[in-house]
Amino acid sequence: MKILVLNCGSSSIKYKLFDMESKAVVAQGGVEKIGLKGSFLKFPLPNGDKVVLEGEILEHQAGIEYILGVLTSSKYGVLGSLDEIDAVGHRVVHGGEEFNSSVFITDEVIKKMEECIELAPLHNPPNLAGIYAVRELMGNIPQVGVFDTAYHQTMPAKSYMYGLPYSLYEKYGIRRYGFHGTSHRYVSRKGCDLLGVPYEKQRIITAHIGNGGSLAAIYGGKSVDTSMGMTPVEGLLMGTRSGDVDAGIISFIMEKENIGTQAISTLVNKHSGLLGVSGVSSDMRELRAAMDEGNERAILAFDMFVHRIKKYVGAYAAVLGGVDILMFTGGIGENAIAVREQVCKDMEYMGIKLDVEKNAKIQGEEAVVSAPDSKVIVMVVPTDEEYMIASDTMEIVNK
């Protein structure tokens, strides 16, 4: 079975084509700058070279049509025809309370997904645009939606409710939903498989740390708490997002700066986090370079970043009644040696003891990086959200 996985953003489309029998990635790439000047499709060749095809790509359907054309082209194609694709799996950011698992996409499902747009106005419309486009271009090919929020639907009310009037939850669905669920689900299972331990019996903290980041507390194979909230702003300090902030500060800034809701949303989403504190960059590599040059604000941003992760690890250890496995994943979690080291530093009191020398050798690969006498296993587990989407798609289509 061949499955095409699509991740449609506001101005981009990432894709991977899987052969599920061999679990191989047959093709991958992405469209950038949709609707903007200089849009292009970029993808790697088997020899490692990268191809960039520039063109006017005004909307998502044109982008997906471009992708399908390349997949079947005589020069770069890997398919004889589109009929070789058996199904399409879509990443969908927000499923609200409607979806607690991946679903086969029908007219009724699309309608419910459209109702979730107000919960994720920046993310769900392009996700839906991808679904509409595939219907238009590929007819009745089976499609599956895999939701970032679904894995966290097992959280108890005490974890997902806010201390606001209950009527606001009833009227608008204001509650914690959490994100990165596909990654937390994949990594937590994969880590237990690598260790050969039963998934349902472990107390796990997964740290998905990238430009966006979140932690999840997992018990009995289910998410019981997570750091992102109703939107992806809450929780950790991130590349450009503020993370946790006193709600009173928002109205204070709006009044002092004389700005409205759109401007404050842009401020906490695009101009805060590592970028906002350091004034240097949202990229951890550039931040580290500035730190090496003695940039004090870059150092402060890094210290805040690590402190927030460490604080959530401690909080979730309390929620779980202890922790058996701490897993790092995401672009920073998998590659930033110093971040893992600083998060685990001085955590021996709760059973976390890092093997500093081994940790320093691990970047982007599966490994246990805790010391042999550590009571908590600390691991690096590279995430593969696209494969998880493809796997869910195959399972649902086969049913």
Model description:
This protein is an alpha/beta fold. It folds into 2 domains: 2-147, Nucleotidyltransferase, domain 5; 196-385, ATPase, nucleotide binding domain (Nucleotidyltransferase, domain 5), CATH 3.30.420.40. 39% of the residues lie in helices and 19% in strands. The chain contains 15 helices and 14 strands. The strands form 2 sheets. The protein has an 8-stranded mixed β-sheet with strand order 5-4-3-2-1-6-8-7, with helices on both faces. Strands 11-10-9-12-14-13 form a 6-stranded mixed β-sheet, sandwiched between helices. Helix 1 (60-71) packs across helix 3 and helix 11 packs across helix 13.
Features of the shown structure:
399 residues; alpha/beta; Nucleotidyltransferase, domain 5; 2 domains; 8-stranded mixed sheet; 6-stranded mixed sheet; 15 helices; 14 strands; 39% helix
Helix and strand arrangement:
Blueprint: E1 2-8, E2 13-19, E3 24-32, E4 40-44, E5 50-54, H1 60-71, E6 87-92, E7 103-104, H2 107-115, H3 124-138, E8 143-147, H4 157-160, H5 166-172, H6 181-195, E9 203-209, E10 213-219, E11 222-226, H7 247-257, H8 261-270, H9 273-278, H10 284-292, H11 296-320, E12 325-329, H12 330-335, H13 337-344, H14 356-359, E13 367-368, E14 377-380, H15 385-398
Parallel strand pairs: 1-6, 6-8, 9-12, 12-14
Antiparallel strand pairs: 1-2, 2-3, 3-4, 4-5, 7-8, 9-10, 10-11, 13-14
